[in-house]
Design brief:
- There is one protein chain.
- By secondary structure, this protein is an all-beta fold.
- It has no helices and 10 strands.
- The protein has strands spanning 7-14, 19-20, 24-33, 43-50, 60-67, 81-89, 97-104, 124-129, 135-138, 159-162.
- Strands 2-8-7-4-5 form a 5-stranded mixed sheet, with no helix packed on it. The protein has a 3-stranded antiparallel sheet with strand order 1-3-6, with no helix packed on it.
- The radius of gyration is 25 Å and the shape is elongated.
Amino acid sequence: GPADVNLRPTNLEITTQNLSWGKDYTFNYTIQNLGLSDTTTQWIDSLYFSLDTTLDSSDLNLTNVSFGHFEDQPMLASGQSNAFYLGSRLPDNYPTQDGYLILKTNAEADQIETDYSDNISAPIQVRIEAADVNLRVSNSANYKQLVLDGSQPVSLSFTTTNTGSDPSVDWLRPYDAVFWSTDDKFDFGPG
């Protein structure tokens, strides 16, 4: 008959004290095989951020971890539990949010199981802070005196500085742009 495998995640724990978007974090959890058969193939576990305690398609997938076999030994034998200690990086450019972290084991149903109803962990309440990055432009050209008539190229120079408390982190790739306006306001014009 078919293999009797039943995977269940337990003991999900975030081990990073202060979570911030765009920063590294660590977490651990345990997977139990409650079935009577050993696992037979690799599977993927996925960690999600949710605004509520229910995992659904609107939740943000934070990371996927693939587990499989080593030299034909089962990853999880019948009745066995394994603890996993993992790290990843939260995506960047999100505002400060309160929500929940939820782990789903065998997220894509690669490992055939007799019961998928217990593949989702209990949610863990978290607060993820926005990175404190505040970019300021200084040393800008005296734009009020520029005459743009198309006959001469225009050169501008300026400095962009991060005045926030987080250092300019490697995930931040700001780009600058120059806009032409008929007044001194940054807007979409009359209308």
